[in-house]
């Protein structure tokens, strides 16, 4: 479904909540909007966060197109999507598009729904940034999830304010503020039943763990977690830049192909070496890298004892993507089901299985 804006945008009252969300959107646009216009798309679910974001974007941005994803996972989801689209038009969006998607099963329902949603949003964005309604509370939950999984500094950096084309203007705004904005302007948000389903880890973090931490630690926990994410992201940007330099040095002459000089990597600090390895693997087609993958590859450099290669996620049907130590260089190649492949525990076995488990690196 596509709708066109019916006329004038809705005038917003200047309440504290409205002004806070508007300032957040205005600041994001000042920092990240590029080109001749500040046109954006907004991912609108009908919930309080995305409704508040849409209302503020209509006032602060150029033209705003609302993108409403219907996951078709609940009865009546089409009606919810249509109502969200209508609300977007009433707020003053130039257009509202309902994007019906088919959710697969890979990685569980949450992961599959997220993949389908982002693919639909990317395809419909029309070349402009897509604003997402993630708040400070969402950031705090993301950091806690990363801590619990033990997946390293990258995972507890949280979500970025802008990772082209995805924008998150509300990472400094509390969820209670977006709900108050909706109340102030007379909007009734959709309450997704999945947001109260305790089978989802994030829901239990939101409703049980964070409130307990706030009580035990005397408040301010969500803000502290969000600050931690921001500080780590600043640090991570510096480390990534240094790792890029290391990677260029390890690549050497182009004639060597997609290989890395082990001597160059072995003499580098571990933090930089692991970042360089991760970037190299991703560029070579690796997917769903875990900490076990990176540890096993790192041992090909720092604890070489003749072990077989390491299978990493990616590759092609019937063939695995394998990292190996060969003549002083680290290689990345597709291999069939034969050959010795080292798993994430440092044990040598057949190539048909790679390291399993662990947290995404």
Characterization of the model:
This protein has 361 residues and is α/β, with parallel strands linked by helices. The chain has helices at residues 16-32, 48-60, 77-91, 109-124, 136-149, 175-184, 201-217, 221-251, 262-266, 270-283, 291-302; strands at residues 2-4, 40-43, 64-70, 95-100, 130-131, 162-163, 166-167, 259-261, 309-316, 319-326, 329-335, 340-342, 348-350. The strands form 2 sheets. The protein has a 7-stranded mixed beta sheet. It has a 6-stranded mixed beta sheet with strand order 8-11-10-9-12-13. It is built from 11 helices and 13 strands.
Please provide the ordered H/E string of secondary-structure elements: EHEHEHEHEHEEHHHEHHHEEEEE
**In total, how many beta strands?**
13
Number of helices: 11
| Helix coverage percent | 40-55%
In terms of quaternary structure, what is this? Answer: single chain
Give the termini distance in whole angstroms: 39 Å
Secondary structure category: alpha/beta
Main sheet summary: 7 strands, mixed
Q: How would you describe the shape?
A: elongated
Strand percent estimate: 15-25%
Rounded Rg = 23 Å
**Mean pLDDT value:** 86
């Amino acid at each position: 479904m596509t709708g066109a804006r019916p006329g004038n945008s809705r005038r917003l009252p200047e309440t504290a909540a409205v002004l806070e969300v508007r300032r957040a959107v205005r600041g994001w646009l000042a920092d990240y909007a590029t080109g001749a216009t500040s046109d954006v798309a907004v991912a609108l679910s009908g919930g309080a966060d995305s409704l508040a974001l849409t209302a503020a974007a209509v006032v602060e941005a150029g033209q705003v197109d609302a993108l409403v994803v219907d996951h078709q996972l609940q009865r009546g989801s089409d009606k919810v999507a249509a109502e969200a689209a209508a609300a977007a038009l009433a707020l003053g969006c130039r257009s509202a598009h309902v994007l019906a998607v088919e959710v697969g099963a890979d990685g569980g329902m949450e992961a599959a729904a997220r993949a389908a949603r982002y693919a639909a949003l990317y395809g419909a964005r029309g070349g402009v940034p897509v604003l997402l309604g993630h708040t400070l509370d969402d950031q705090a939950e993301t950091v806690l999830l990363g801590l619990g999984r033990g997946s390293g500094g990258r995972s507890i950096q949280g979500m970025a304010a802008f990772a082209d084309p995805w924008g998150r203007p509300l990472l400094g705004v509390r969820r209670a503020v977006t709900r108050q904005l909706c109340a102030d302007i007379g909007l009734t948000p959709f309450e997704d039943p999945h947001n109260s389903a305790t089978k989802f880890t994030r829901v239990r973090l939101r409703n049980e763990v964070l409130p307990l931490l706030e009580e035990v630690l005397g408040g301010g926990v969500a803000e502290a977690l969000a600050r931690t994410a921001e500080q780590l992201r600043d640090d991570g940007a510096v480390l990534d830049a240094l790792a890029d330099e290391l990677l260029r040095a390890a690549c050497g002459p182009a004639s060597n192909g997609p290989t890395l000089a082990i001597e160059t990597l072995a003499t580098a600090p571990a933090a930089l070496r692991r970042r360089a390895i991760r970037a190299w693997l991703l560029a070579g087609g690796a997917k769903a890298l875990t900490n076990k993958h990176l540890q096993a590859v790192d041992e090909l450099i720092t604890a070489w004892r003749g072990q077989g290669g390491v299978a990493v996620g990616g590759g092609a049907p019937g063939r695995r993507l394998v990292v190996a130590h060969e003549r002083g260089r680290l290689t990345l190649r597709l291999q069939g089901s034969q050959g010795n492949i080292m798993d994430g525990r440092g044990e040598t076995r057949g190539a048909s299985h790679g390291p399993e488990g662990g947290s995404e690196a």
